[in-house]
Amino acid sequence: MPAKPGPSPEVLAEFETHRRELCAYAYRMLGSSFEAEDAVQETFTRAWRSYDSFEGRASLRSWLYKIATNICLDMLDRPQSRARPMDLNGPGRADSPLPPPQPDYVWIEPIPNALAFGADPAEHASTKDTLRLAFVAACQHLPATQRAILIMREVLRFSATETAEALTMSPASVNSALQRARATMSKVTPEVADSFDEADEAQRKLVDDFVTAFEAYDMNALTALLKADVALSMPPFELWISGPENVAAFMLGTGSACRDSRLVPLAGANGAPAFGHYKPSEEPGVWVPWSITILELDGPTIAGLNFFLDTDKLFPLFGLPPTWTEGSSN
Questions:
Q1: Residue pair 310/104 in contact by the 8 Å Cβ criterion
Q2: What is the Cα–Cα distance from 44 to 231, expressed in whole angstroms?
């Protein structure tokens, strides 16, 4: 018997219109941009295989979210939730030696804006806060089903009925779980810093001043930009540093390999200003990958310095070259 034909090219093209929002959803659920991409690809594969059973009783978008949710819940059947270093322990001393790196599955990973945001600027603005590293890390404190319910109801604005359909639950159970999820999030979500708005001249100047100070390795200028309780973290290391003086001491000590670095602007990550961070190599005039660096802003100061050091995975994800020279285009 010949195989049934799959969906038409038009339907597959409609699948694609939902890729970025599904990727953002899976990222909030999983805390990993790579796992999120895998989840979306598996969602489309399953949707393609079972399209004949989709009878239009729900919207295509709702149906895709139902499939994606089941895939994410299966992927979350693991012993450990992802975290940020500050979720695991208190701040370290600036002169502390770096501990052994932890496996990549321990950490919240960054996600490029281009993977998570659609072309609609209004949608971008309304969902940016829920892609913050701190929000995604806070979500990891929730049981998987509560996490899905919170994201679907609070971020995606699904109704209780739509959410219940996706999770094969009753609307009453969804609402009860949502209340528990809200209570947990109120305890574990840190104070919200400012959203980054590229049109905000003061914020752009703050970011530009940071780049100038960091590339000059001018610790006086750098610390003047930092919030009093600024946090510096460097996954895959558990060690994190708090406070401008400790950040400067760390930079001049254990972190001194970053002297004479170059910060190559990216189109953003997690809705925040981000850079491909290259450090000097042994070859003059050539810089090599060091981190994806993401800034968190709070008013006229920088509240978070996030250095993600798994460059073998992350630089290709952000479309960055393996080396940088003075003649490279940003």
A1: yes
A2: 39
How far apart CA 279 and CA 286 sit, in angstroms, is 9
Q: Which amino acid is at 170?
A: S
Q: What structural domains and CATH numbers belong to the chain?
A: 83-132+199-330 (3.10.450.50)
Structure tokens at 135: 């929000």
Integer Rg of the chain from CA:
21
Q: Which of 69, 60, 62, 57 is closest to 8 using CA atoms?
A: 60
The encoded tokens of residue 305 equal 């310095």
Residue indicated by tokens 């930092």: 226
The token pair that represents 218 in the structure block: 């001018």
| pLDDT tens digits, one per residue of 10-62 | 878 889 999 999 999 999 999 999 999 999 999 999 999 988 888 666 788 99
Query: 3-state SS of the chain: helix, strand, coil percent to 5?
Result: 50, 15, 35
* Planar angle of CA 101, 273, 216, nearest 5 degrees: 75
CA 230 vs. chain centroid, Å, equals: 19
What the block records as the tokens of 7 is: 């969906």
The alpha carbon of 291 is separated from its chain's Cα centroid by a whole number of angstroms, namely: 14
Could you report how far apart the first and last alpha carbons of the chain are, in Å? 56
pTM value? 0.93
Specify which residues 112 forms β-bridges with: 269
Mind giving me the DSSP string for 102-119? PPGGGBPPP-BHHHH--S
Mapped onto helix, strand or coil, the DSSP state of residue 143 is coil
